[in-house]
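Support request from a user on the community tier.

User writes: "When I paste my structure tokens into the form, the page sometimes reloads and wipes my input. The last time it worked, I copied everything first. Here is what I submitted, just in case something in the input itself triggers the reload:"
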């Protein structure tokens, strides 16, 4: 591969990793959602994100970037611009607190900086990333959700606090979008529970597949819906 042959001086081509065919495949991979925050990306600008940064890694001294992974499929993710770039959340009417500008950019923290791969000759398996890779591991055990849509780190998760901070997963608009998606899910669950109480078995059977579809991977903000389904008492439901 040319990137490996060139070494750290390789000039990464966005025309290659950002080719239309690559972008189309990445959209399909994550059901047209940002891999990190589950925001719909089909109708918005989004980036072909490098999980391990292709350029100099922020806070990693003289690290040249993971240039040899610039075109590696396993290092690419579809990400919304708010997760991936340095973006400031626009002012929101009657909302005082707005999270400062931020985003992943070239951040890629490890639990042990001495084990960071500096070249293609180094084993990536020695690294212990603190940023969750949703294409390689299930994020759900790491995250919980409050009734207002806020995401928090579950007990024992080392990666979740870092991931939430770097990706700014609690932007106001994102919390609101999660909450709206959850309200629709709860409405159907309440219909099912009422049908059960009233002995309307046919209605219950009819609603079951709808419930399953609403928190399927293909749906927006499925994480908060599945968390609610597992922990209804946290939201005041029996």
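"...and here is what came back when it finally went through:"
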């Amino acid at each position: 591969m040319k990137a490996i042959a060139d070494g750290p001086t390789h000039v990464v081509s966005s025309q290659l990793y950002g080719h239309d065919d690559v972008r189309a495949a990445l959209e399909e991979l994550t059901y047209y959602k940002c891999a990190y925050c589950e925001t719909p990306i089909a109708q918005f600008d989004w980036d072909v994100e490098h999980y391990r940064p292709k350029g100099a890694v922020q806070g990693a001294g003289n690290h040249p970037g993971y240039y040899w992974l610039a075109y590696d499929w396993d290092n690419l993710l579809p990400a919304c611009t708010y997760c991936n770039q340095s973006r400031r959340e626009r002012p929101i009417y009657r909302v005082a607190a707005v999270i400062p500008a931020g985003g992943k950019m070239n951040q890629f923290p490890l639990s042990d900086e001495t084990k960071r791969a500096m070249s293609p000759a180094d084993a990536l398996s020695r690294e212990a990333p603190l940023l969750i890779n949703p294409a390689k591991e299930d994020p759900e055990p790491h995250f919980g959700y409050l009734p207002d849509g806020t995401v928090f780190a579950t007990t024992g998760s080392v990666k979740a606090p870092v991931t939430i901070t770097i990706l700014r997963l609690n932007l106001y608009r994102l919390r609101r979008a999660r909450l709206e998606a959850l309200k629709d899910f709860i409405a159907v669950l309440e219909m099912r529970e009422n049908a059960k109480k009233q002995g309307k078995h046919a209605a219950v059977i009819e609603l079951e597949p709808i419930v399953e579809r609403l928190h399927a991977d293909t749906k927006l903000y499925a994480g908060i819906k599945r968390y609610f389904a597992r922990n209804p008492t946290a939201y005041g439901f029996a």
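Agent notes: The reload is a front-end session timeout and is unrelated to the input. The mean pLDDT is 91. The first strand starts at residue 46 and ends at 50. Escalated to web team.
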